[in-house]
Amino acid sequence: MKLLAPNAILGGLINGVVGVCALVGAVWTPFDPLKINFSARLQPPGPVYWLGTDEFGRDVLSRLMAAAATSVWISLLTVMAAISAGTVVGLLTGYLRGWTDRILMAFNDALLAFPGILLALGLLAVMGASKYGIILALGLAYTPSVARVVRGTVLSLREKEYVDASRVMGNAEIYTMARHILPNCIAPLAVLATSMFGWALLAESALSFLGLGVPSPAPTWGNMLAESRSFIGQAVWLGIFPGLCISLTLLGINLLGDVVRDKLDPRMQGI
Amino acid sequence: MAMNDLLRIEGLKLAVARTGLEVVKDVSFSVAPGEIVGIVGESGSGKTLVARSIMALEPPAIRRIAGSIRFQGKDIARLSPRELRHLRGAHIGMVFQEPMTSLNPSMLIGRQLDEGLALHSHLNAKGRRTLILDMLRRVGIKDPERALEGYPHQFSGGTCQRIMLAAVMLLLPDLLIADEPTTGLDAVVQRDVLELMVELTRGHGTAVLMISHDLSMLARYADRIIVMCKGEIVEQGVTQDLLQSPRHPYTQKLLAAMPRRLPKRGLSPSVQPMVEVSDLVVDYHGRKSLFRKESGKRVLHGVSLAIKPREVVALVGGSGSGKTTLGRTIAGLLDPAGGEIRFAGQPVRRGSEGWTNYRLNCQMVFQDPYSSLDPRMTVAGLVREALRVVPEMNYREKMDRVREILRDVGLDETFAGRYPHELSGGQRQRVAIARALVRRPAFVIADEPVSALDVTVRAQVLDLIADLQQRHGFSCLFISHNLGVVEQVADRVIVMRDGLIVEEGDRDRIFDQPQDPYTVKLLSAVPVLEATANGGVRLRWRHNHISRGHVATP
């Protein structure tokens, strides 16, 4: 086993900190992230409020931690939803071919032609902003790219002789698909899932920023950033810290994504 | 060695740059002008690296650490990039293994042929064109004017290799390096291309360095043979001497691995056939997509055959003869458009009554051991999977059976937990055979089971198949393009061409008195072996005329 690359360590470290904050933030925060305290409005970072307070006197650090829990949870569920739906579609179209393939893929391509965020905007405008609305909308928006990747992999895998070998053994098609094709799709899926987690996080922040995310007063990094705009002159920390959270988390995910790609891409193996 | 050697390599050592691992150790040999020298070796013997270093084209990860390569007295290592470029093409030509990938798919044949000529000669466009057309005619292209306007994909592999040869020979090089020039081609085409290569180079006095894993092919054309093993030259000598009295054990092993005819087995003549195929017709449907529109194509035009219990029937033919399609159809992987397959007297078709029984009794061994095993399963898992649909066995019985069959194919306990990528090609094919046989099938279809393997490994796997067939007594349909292999294993031989059976008969009859001209042609590519007293062989070729095959234009 060779030493981990520096970007693996850095990416792991950043994601580790964010992950711990999210986990802790889900059950405990230094202050109540929703508690309004007018006597401590717009306090700059200091010994009591480490990252300062906002216009209602709420602790920014507590809010960031609570927001991390929400954002990470939403992004995770989104990725899981997109991966499961996309895998099913990709497997079916790639393995069965024919009319199933043509119809599902035409629909898929139409979805793919839509910018993901626009699709989510439209859906959320209809359904109203909520946590599960975001997951549904973003999950749907990301499903086509998963389906594409899985279908492409399946198309190359089904020509492999071990798939023929499985059929000659008398295995049912569904068994062949589950036992021989699906496990061999995992590498490209893992690579896609990592980068998709980053997209989901960013999209969720963007939607919250636009007011279509998790409704206030529940904190998310996006809506904290949006609310900070009015106070950018008096309390710059209100904008800096959520922005930093978003950027650093994405950086960490992208670094880790590269590592996953290097590890799992068959072309990189043996080097 | 005389001073007028064309090429002289002395003490050549090549190593992997990063690790310092020596992959070519102290190789010395020379090539005289006009001589044909063959280098034989198995994969990993370093033969290709040696050939590439002659043109200073070693892969970037490989470094030369010692030795000299002199071409026409000049040290290759001292040449400037400019002088090297002048040497490549004009003085040293190279023909690669894969004609389909060594020609640029996006360039017209005419332009590709013109490229080298424009670079290395001072002729004008018209003069070059005359030369090119003349050369294409000489390599046997029927309508050279039209060929110039074609793209590589419009030609067959054999024709592409002829064009490649024409491109190289146009420049009249002093040395032609041919690295496995015909490995991807079927036996008949292979012979045509080689004869052409020898004829052309003889005419110009070009020396040839021919690299191959196929000793019998080299033996036919080379004046001298160099045997390489694990980066070293173990033996070199004049072809006849080397073959008839090999000194090094490895050479003896290579010679012993050449397939040879075994004594005829006694099979009871009048039993009911186990598998009967009658008038089988298979069509490939045209596929419609955005980029391609293919029309449907009939690949089998009514094929009938019968295989008796315990019998090994070989199915031979060139590429495109439909032999693989026939095998896959009998295995139930393709649905026939017409005709019938009967197993033990009962017609079988997907979903029919006898289907499950047939499915349990008919197994297949595939060609490519690198793609026929699921990379995510262990050896034991792969073999046990074949028992999954056998209902009357419990887990313990299945594991016992797996262990037993793995022992049978020569893999001990330690292999059970390994993954395919941890195995060599030969070991993988053993696993594939174990998987096919673990159910004790009555009928096994083997589609080119040894053609992806090295010569010595091939011999071992063939022995294994023969041995298992003796012990388990299954019938076998053995599909191959290599008649040498077939001669060793088959009881009966069926020759196919263009989706039809052209000849069928007892092995000895087919090999000794072939009737059909196509069979004669196939046979002319394999030698008859006679053992000599001192562990060598004498080769005799059935037909030694140089013939020009028919070559299509696009």
**Main sheet specs of chain B:** 6 strands, mixed
Order of strands across the main sheet of chain B: 6-7-8-3-9-10
CA-based gyration radius of chain B: 25 Å
What is the CATH C-level name of the domain at 67-215 in chain A?
A: Mainly Alpha
CATH architecture of the domain at 67-215 in chain A: Orthogonal Bundle
Note the gap between the termini of chain B. Answer: 48 Å
List the quaternary state of the chains: heterodimer
- Percentage of residues assigned to helices of chain A: over 70%
Task: Walk me through what this model shows.
The complex is a heterodimer of chains A (271) and B (554). Chain A is mainly alpha-helical. Chain A has helices spanning 6-27, 60-96, 98-113, 116-127, 131-157, 161-168, 173-181, 186-209, 221-228, 237-264. Chain A has a domain at 67-215: MetI-like fold (Orthogonal Bundle). Helix content of chain A is 70%, strand content 0%. Chain B is α/β, with parallel strands linked by helices. Chain B folds into 2 domains: 7-245, Rossmann fold (3-Layer(aba) Sandwich); 275-531, P-loop containing nucleotide triphosphate hydrolases (Rossmann fold), CATH 3.40.50.300. In chain B, 34% of the residues lie in helices and 25% in strands. In chain B, strand 1 (7-16) and strand 2 (22-31) form a beta hairpin. In chain B, helix 14 (379-385) packs parallel to helix 16 and helix 16 (425-437) packs parallel to helix 17. The longest helix of chain B has 18 residues, at 187-204. Chain B starts with 6 loop residues before the first strand and ends in a 13-residue tail after the last strand. The chains are: A mainly alpha (271), B alpha/beta (554). At the A-B interface, helix 6 of A face helix 13 and strand 16 of B.
